[in-house]
Write a structure and sequence with these properties.
Strand order of the largest sheet: 1-2-3-12-9-14-7-6-4-5
Order of helices and strands: HEHEHEHHEEHEHHEEEEEEEEHHHHHH
Number of helices: 14
Oligomer: single chain
Mean pLDDT: 87
Strand content: 15-25%
CATH class of the domain at 54-357: Mainly Beta
Largest sheet: 10 strands, mixed
CATH architecture of the domain at 54-357: Sandwich
CATH superfamily of the domain at 54-357: Cupin
Number of strands: 14
CATH topology of the domain at 54-357: Jelly Rolls
Length: 490
Amino acid sequence: MRLVASRALVRSAAHEIRVRWERGALTNQVPCECLAVSAPGEVGGVPKVPEFPLLSRHYIPGVLELRSPSEPGWMDRETRVLAERHFRAAGDGEAGGGALGGVAFIAEPATFSYGDFVRGFLLPNRPCVFSSAFTRAWGCRRRWVTPAGRPDFDYLLQTYGDVVVPVADCGVQEYNSNPKEHMPLRDYISYWKEYIQGDCSSPRGCLYLKDWHLCRDSPADDVFTLPVYFSSDWLNEFWDTLGVDDYRFVYAGPTGTWSPFHADIFRSFSWSVNVCGRKKWLLFPPGQEEALRDHLGHLPYDVTVPALMDKCLHPRRTLAGPALELTQEAGEMVFVPSGWHHQVHNLDDTISINHNWVNGFNLANMWHFLQQELRAVQEEVGQWRDSMPDWHQHCQVIMRSCSGINFEEFYHFLKVIAERRLCILEEGVAEDDTRPGLEQAVFDVGRIVDVLASVVTHPDFQRVDTGTFSPQPEKLLQRLRRTVAATAAP
């Protein structure tokens, strides 16, 4: 998932603020009608990364001789020490993820631990694919799919037919995304059947069910089991604590539906499981997207069009390597690292479950992204800096409208996770506790300290009115630092 935060959107929001200010009707809210928000979603000190079988267009099977799965609490002491050493060596830099010859394929759940995932993929920020063995027991793979491996429309209609779902029109470009409408699932399935009968064509266009909040809006018992590798999920933990929203989605659509070129919201990680059907993924490591920009500085909407090879339109295209391409089969699970731009095409009638997630391993990436977003807003509205009252505050308003969060909300995000980890460290962890373990909590607190220290010294955060914050940011940082000192590994 992402929010569309292009310069055009920023300019639109800024224009609306300017008009309201001139009319004397300026408030601290940007009207929704002036924005277009959608969600297409879909070092030093580190030992040598374990060797995994690689994917190109076809998977290369292999047997992994690794440690057994992690104990409850996800992170063991050895993994924590390794990760802390990595981030001390990396400093404040944003995680990259260099070009690869293929994508690792993880075959067996019994021989792949959380620590293996940290070493092989979270720390180096590299993608991988998990085999269908990891999702074999999921309820959705039994109930949502016919014996022939196709979507079970009858079951979906009976269970969710009246649920209203968001549907994007893949044939219409709106900024770098697609416009959406909402309809009952039964109406979308009626369209889907019509599309199949029309030989993958319909007068209504190519419609794709995207960003259905199934877990938030409907009973989702026995639909799926969250894999341990993705259990440290601060983004959904935060929203679950507030009881407002989540970043858990179902996507469903016929052959030919697709998601345009994008990177996921907040530079989050994402994981995607095909309940049925196949997807083709085109992935680019962080930084390569810059070479794909056109002569006006815009990122492409579709990286498969011939125009991308036009040197006049895309003068730096030759500086980018080819996309890392993989085909995801039914039941398989793709891990998309932070900041990797990608484009995804459904090769069959496909249903997938997707999550966006942030944790200590990509928290710094999220903070770097938010700083970049604010700079882009400030550059766009810089001409009004001296003439508009509360200019800095309105930049934060525009940033939140275009990016989904501002500096104030980012602090509250850090505060909620920090206080929950401190609670674990103070109260301990019961044997059957589903919360993070002690080692995980210590690691999380350390990562929050590193980022929060940067936040509180940022000039634009210092302009935020923190008078009502409890605790005050500096007080929280001091408390967290004392905890880090008391739990530091030798």
